[in-house]
From TrEMBL:
GO CC terms, sorted: nucleus
Gene Ontology terms, MF aspect: ATP binding; cyclin-dependent protein serine/threonine kinase activity
Positions of the Protein kinase domain: 92-380
Keyword Transferase: yes
Keywords attached to this entry: ATP-binding, Kinase, Nucleotide-binding, Serine/threonine-protein kinase, Transferase
Start-end of Basic and acidic residues biased regions: 11-24, 31-59
Descriptive protein name: cyclin-dependent kinase
Top-level EC class: transferase
Amino acid sequence: MVGRWADTEEEKAADLHRKREKEEKKRRKVEKQSREQKEAYDAAELVEGKSDSTREKLPTDLPALTLEEGRKTILLRHVASEWGPCRHVDNFERLNHIEEGSYGWVSRARELGTGDVVALKKLKMDGTEASGFPVTGLREIQCLMQARHRHIVDLREIVVGSRLTEVYLVMDFLEHDLKALQEDMSEPFMPSEIKTLLIQLTSAVDFLHSQWILHRDLKTSNILMNNRGEIKIADFGMARQFGDPLPKMTQLVVTLWYRAPELLLGAERYSTPIDMWSIGCIFGELLTREPLLQGKNEVEQLSKVFELCGIPTEDSWPGFKRLPNARSLRLPPLRHNIGPVVRVRFPFLTSAGSSLLTSLLSLDPRKRPSAHEMLNHPYFAEDPKPKSTSMFPTFPSKAGQEKRRRVASPNAPRRGVAPSISASTDFSGIFTSRDAEATGPGFQLRMM
Ligand SMILES: Nc1ncnc2c1ncn2[C@@H]1O[C@H](COP(=O)(O)OP(=O)(O)OP(=O)(O)O)[C@@H](O)[C@H]1O
Ligand SMILES: [Mg+2]
């Protein structure tokens, strides 16, 4: 009896030991996989920032690696289990062209089998077949697969054409994008509508950030809207996953007018606040129908940012001087009125509204609210309350008939070398117009 008891105990202990070993092995394998995936991401990111002449060439830049090892390092992994063979694009009838962007051509199409109207985005393949599948396309697919949310455009499937370079994303079709729509509207959205739009946008961004995804190109033309007042974020060509600790990433992201100051100043480690800055720019644009900060180049963009949001100081943005492009900026003397003037620029906003906008446009990324914090901001709780989407007006769809009309605006950045802001860049004169002004809380005095 005693012997049998002892045997069973031993067996149990051995079983337990085997089980633990197995679990440990599994854990190590998962850890190794995620480490490899992260390294692959970082390597691909650096390729992107390094040169326009694509991934194939990178391994030769790395003397310590053989070509084969180099290729392995920049391989991006996919959630492959969810993929089967892709259908042919012939299953769709092209209805009309909508838009050519930096990374693809988008058209409206009908699925022959179901009659569903969809959007087809044909990925641009960097010009030549030899350069392989573009990293922006891979990221777009991977992030869209992961980002299933009611306010993020639904990726239905990937279809292919007859040639290797023909890869299409099939997405739900939405009638408008916020940029083209605003250009056609005679008045800006009403405050209650702006709140609804911002809540939808921010809830999608909150979800993305919780999934460790940065969008990195939030702007009104990448926000789609249907005729039921619902918006969905699109264009994940610049999106990528990030982690903790933050990896080094390229600064060549986000369309210039929506680009955060830390990116303009060359930060290589940045995080979710860059998307929150873009939301601030979108908020300002919704209020006036005009893009908020329209610089012609990086230097002018930065100067417009400083004019609106103030000059960075060690108090307002501790450590900004250590950013690569900040070291030798010539900034105005501190006797100038150097604070933000968001409140003055939007005098019709309530104080809760302008405090939200001012905080989104904080120069110091740490001072911007997270998407989650933004959703709980008092601005959304005060009157007028956010309008129900069912009460939104409907607008005639431009995408239904022809190419969407657009006032010229900058494209998403292309891969390549980020322009550095030169050592002699002089911002000292940008506040001369403020010299004769004194600003008080919520109003402005001009000395006559
Ligand atoms: N699902 C969709 N339904 C309707 N229109 C869409 C859809 N997806 C994209 N579009 C339209 O096509 C335009 C370009 O699409 P998208 O932004 O994905 O391409 P892109 O090449 O990455 O553009 P860019 O780099 O210039 O921002 C959008 O601004 C929008 O007007
Ligand atoms: Mg776009």
